[in-house]
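Quick log. Single chain, no ligands specified.
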Amino acid sequence: MPKMIDTHTHLYSEEFDKDRAEMIARAKAAGVTRCFIPAIDSSYTERMFQLKNEYPDYVFLMNGLHPCNVKENYKEELTHVENLMPTHSFCAIGEIGIDLYWDKTFLKEQQEAFAWQIQLAKKHQLPIVIHCREAFEEVFEVLESEKGDDLFGIFHCFTGTEAQAYRAIAYGLHLGIGGVVTFKNGNIDKFLKNIDLQHIVLETDSPYLAPVPYRGKRNESAYIVQVADKLSDIYELPVDEIKRITTENATKIFKI
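-> predicted structure:
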């Protein structure tokens, strides 16, 4: 069975507390050989380390402050992120970025935290994993100021336009494609074939954004199969080829 990599999954989520081992076993059975775990804030750090201890060769941790958790104490949170760097091995800085869907109160702080964490990633020669919701122009503004050969990573859960896809790629980013590509109103399926598969990686963002036919239910890493199947339809390529190329892409980004 061809390998797949879930480049974005919150396996430490409380939603998996009752059946995490079984869920991970299903992912392995589906062909998922590695899972990359984004950070949210300091309140999840211990859960992430516990997960890594239980599955040391299967899960790979990111470090960072999620934009939705940039609040009044964001500088303390960024200090926490920085203090973790010498003590643990991280695969990326993420998920970081800007989210204006729920609240625009901390836009300035989100922008500052985003830029600071990009610089941290550059310092440690790590990829970034970007969260963007209702904030493409604001995200691109920060990326424009930080662009360079040392900027690379994944634009997680890409839901933008074709033009925005090309712009993200121009900054050295791959597009993280998950369950949204299977949604009737997801729109990215309409132009994705125009994007070279070399710029695509697979993700689930579980427990969120489950693909069709599981939409509305809890997502899990095994459902990445549905994402690969949809990309096989879009690109008119065998699903094994989709899995091979996207796995190679993820392997290069995370240097594994």
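DSSP finds eight helices and eight strands in the chain.
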